[in-house]
From TrEMBL:
Lineage of producing organism: Eukaryota, Viridiplantae, Chlorophyta, core chlorophytes, Trebouxiophyceae
Single GO molecular function: nicotinamide-nucleotide adenylyltransferase activity
Protein known as: Cytidyltransferase-like domain-containing protein
InterPro entries: CinA-like_C, Cyt_trans-like, Rossmann-like_a/b/a_fold
Organism, as annotated: [Myrmecia] bisecta
Domain Cytidyltransferase-like: 225-392
GO CC annotation terms, alphabetical: cytoplasm; nucleus
A family per Pfam: CTP_transf_like
């Protein structure tokens, strides 16, 4: 490893972003360099080499039309970004990195020798492409060039200046003459306002956590309190904390889910979305915004997750009349079960002062067999604050 490469990787490992790297066809030395430098666990969450076509299809959910292309590198980076979100904690800066190459092999190639890399950060994707001079290097040397380009791209993704100084050509002396340095083409694609993209249907989720904005990367295996949060209040915070305690889960796994879609009322205006979002930003609470108004949709987005719901919501959730009949209800819950999701029910006090909990509900036997519901004991949570009462109180205040 060259000294400038080692310096760049050292700076990468000292920076905050965490990454998943998918590389195929080249850039293999970059993976070795990244993983053998001290501090690799600060940066690399996962690294894969999907070499076979079927392996690439598993990473991208479909086999690409062309393996070595800027489009495939971009798709790999986006897939890597989603994997990074699954593996990292809320509030962590994330990068997805894709690299795909067509390099020298044991037979002559008709096409050009090319390197494509992409860095995806949610709201933007940066593309890198490099054409190598055929016959100027052997396979190992071409892979070294591809690897240095990949390291430069990662350094750029970490907003580090070190990557710019890398000598990509790795000038090989031949008869006293050095190869020319090839031109690296760099371009960027910006998403724009993530919330506007969500409302327009271009992305499915926008998460705000720890000062980071995570776009279109729903995290699986977490605990979500779904609601309209109009307004966010202490009862919501208590519900999520009680569910986390009941499940013996790390509070860092918990997040709020604000749905801006409603089957009857449509999608909230963006100004209203920003108004409801603001308290989360002010308090530094993680929240993911979606248009998923139904729990079947939420379960499909946030697989293997637990959804925290109040008693009244839970009662309505198991009433066949809201589905057009019991058979249709069971079909919907079968989808939730298929996606590995469950519900935690937080009780409330009724007008007579009695605490109503999961034990007071009539849950169909089929749903009991699927083990979809779990209750929070009264001792863990009892808060009688309601969003409706708070809104009425706020509206009654003199302006």
């Amino acid at each position: 490893m060259e000294a400038d490469t080692a310096t760049t990787i050292e700076a990468i490992h000292k920076s905050r972003p965490q990454a998943v790297v998918y590389a195929t066809g080249g850039g293999m030395q970059a993976l070795s360099w990244l993983l053998t430098m001290p501090g690799a666990s600060n940066t690399i969450l996962d690294a894969r080499v999907p070499y076979a076509t079927k392996a690439m299809g598993q990473v991208l959910s479909s086999e690409p039309a062309t393996s070595a292309s800027v489009e495939t590198a971009s798709d790999m980076a986006r897939a890597a970004y989603k994997q990074a979100a699954d593996l990292a904690a809320f509030g962590t800066p994330l990068m997805g990195i894709g690299c795909t190459c067509a390099l020298a092999t044991n037979r002559p190639k008709k096409g050009e020798h090319k390197v494509y890399a992409a860095i995806h950060s949610g709201a933007a994707t940066t593309f890198y492409s490099l054409t190598l001079e055929k016959g100027a290097r052997n396979r190992l040397q071409e892979d070294a060039v591809a690897s240095r380009l990949l390291i430069r791209a990662i350094a750029d993704g970490c907003h580090l200046p070190e990557g710019r100084s890398l000598d990509l050509a790795l000038r090989e002396q031949a008869g006293g003459a050095a190869d020319a340095v090839e031109h690296v083409a760099v371009s960027e694609e910006q998403l724009g306002d993530p919330l506007e993209a969500l409302l327009a249907g271009r992305v499915q989720t926008v998460e705000f956590s720890g000062g980071q904005v995570v776009v279109d990367a729903p995290r699986r295996g977490r605990i979500y309190l779904a609601g309209s949060f109009n307004p966010l209040h202490e009862g919501h915070r208590g519900m999520l904390a009680a569910a986390c305690q009941t499940l013996a889960r790390d509070p860092a796994d918990c997040c709020y889910e604000l749905s801006v879609g409603n089957p009857d009322k449509g999608v909230l205006p963006i100004d209203e979305v920003r108004r409801r979002l603001q308290p989360f930003l002010e308090e530094g609470l993680p929240v993911v915004i979606t248009k998923a108004s139904l729990f079947t949709q939420k379960a499909a987005l946030f697989r293997d997750s637990v959804f925290v719901i109040g008693y009244d919501t839970a009662v309505r959730l198991v009433m066949p009349k809201y589905y057009g009949g019991e058979a249709d209800m069971l079909v919907q819950f079968a989808g939730v079960h298929h996606h590995g999701s469950q519900f935690v029910v937080v009780g409330r006090v009724n007008a007579e002062g009695r605490f109503l909990s999961l034990e007071d509900m009539e849950v169909p036997h089929q749903l009991q067999d699927w083990d979809l519901f779990r209750g929070v004991p009264e001792s863990a949570f009892r808060n009688d604050i309601s969003s409706t009462a708070l809104r009425q109180s706020a509206n009654s205040q003199p302006s």
